[in-house]
Design a protein that fits this description.
Elements lengths: L1 E4 L7 H10 L8 H10 L3 E7 L2 E10 L4 E8 L8 H12 L5 E6 L8 H13 L3 E9 L2 E8 L6 H12 L6
Parallel strand pairs: 4-5
Antiparallel strand pairs: 1-2, 2-3, 3-4, 5-7, 6-7
Length: about 170
């Protein structure tokens, strides 16, 4: 697998298409804003390829003391084939020794995609993340916060990360 750092200059339509289809609309920042934030927030936006074939991408907000695994997507036709595992393993190695947090749609919330949420949650737990037992609601979607690394994570830590984001972008 090879990686490519994404910048405002090379963020292509294929990556945009996956971004806009992999996440519920209420969890998305508009694409043009994401592209602008790459340099303003020093986002680690990485695309993953097998040969020349695009597989997926990750966006990490490297914020001290917690790196926020913000977005992680694999092409739908490649899911369940170990590609997500390869990407996550690469990402974990890249941030080895650092504390990372990840929020995802809560597997505890009643919803139409409960099975998918439960599989995703188990995937992250198998890979070394642990529950913080913290939840945040965005509109009607409940998010559970997990972390990897030393220490604990609090709602104040979450508010600090979101506060940093709000310096660069705000939502209605």
């Amino acid at each position: 697998m090879r990686t490519k750092q994404i910048t405002a200059a090379n963020a292509d339509e294929q990556i945009k298409q996956l971004y806009q289809t992999a996440f519920p609309e209420e969890e998305q920042i508009p694409w043009d804003d994401i592209v602008r934030l790459i340099s303003e927030m020093h986002l680690d936006f990485t695309a993953y390829y097998e040969g020349e074939d695009f597989i997926g991408f990750t966006i990490v907000f490297p914020y001290e003391p917690f790196n926020w695994y913000w977005y992680f997507a694999v092409l739908p036709e490649l899911r369940g084939q170990g590609k997500g595992q390869e990407i996550l393993t690469t990402l974990i190695e890249k941030y080895k020794g650092k504390t990372c947090v990840l929020d995802m749609e809560s597997p505890c919330q009643e919803c139409d995609n409960k099975d998918q949420r439960e599989r995703r949650h188990k995937f992250y737990l198998r890979n070394g993340f642990r529950d913080t037992n913290l939840y945040k609601k965005f509109d009607v979607v409940e998010m559970t916060i997990t972390m990897m690394g030393e220490g604990t994570f609090s709602m104040q830590n979450w508010d600090d990360i979101v506060g940093e984001l709000k310096k660069f972008w705000t939502w209605d």
